[in-house]
Amino acid sequence: MRMPRLTTNDPSQNKSLSISDPREKVSKKMVLDLGMSYLEKMGSGHICKVCISYGGSCCSGCEHLSNGVGCTLRNTSCTAWLCGFLKFLLYETGHLQEWNDYWEQVPGQDHRMDFTPETFFIHKSLHVQSLGNLSEALAADLQELARTHSAIGFIFTLREKIDRNIDQFIFYKDDPVKKNRLKRSIVNLSSPFHRFHIALNDYRAIN
Ligand code: SF4
Ligand code: SF4
Asked: Composition bias, kind Polar residues: at what positions (predicted)?
């Protein structure tokens, strides 16, 4: 689960962590703060709220999850990880590649923990995006789908399918035939997201 928890040193105020080429030394804290600010600004909280209310939290069963406190071991791995819904949001708005490229340079990511050193070098930036309207729209679509579909876990099955298709889309980036097939599949899977698509059209019109 994304669990946004902003620190007082909020890098989103600067809209990015500016990295001057060729490389810059950063602290793990800076990277975590930026990641959390990014998730907050993209509006992940709207989507997580719906997901969690239907029992789909990705933190379920984690030993670092504390009742009433949330995550007690904020780490680079969980911050970098995106579920299918959040991945879809960045995929459609054209920011997924930048997100992936940024986190690929952060060492020591592991399952629900990290071995990331306190300082390290990176050379790619991450620019915080305000996607709150889109997240809200997607959250409303998910809420409606979860309410109206009798199949248990309908939205979570959808989340996994979208996730798989986007991963493959990235994997086959140099294969136009497979890429197009996957793109069509993602369009089909996301066709029930009516509010989201309206918000996306508005977003694309001004970006
Ligand atoms: S699976 Fe996705 S939407 Fe659900 S809690 Fe985790 S990050 Fe949020
Ligand atoms: S460490 Fe556990 S509680 Fe914390 S974000 Fe990761 S999965 Fe969730």
From this structure: 1-19
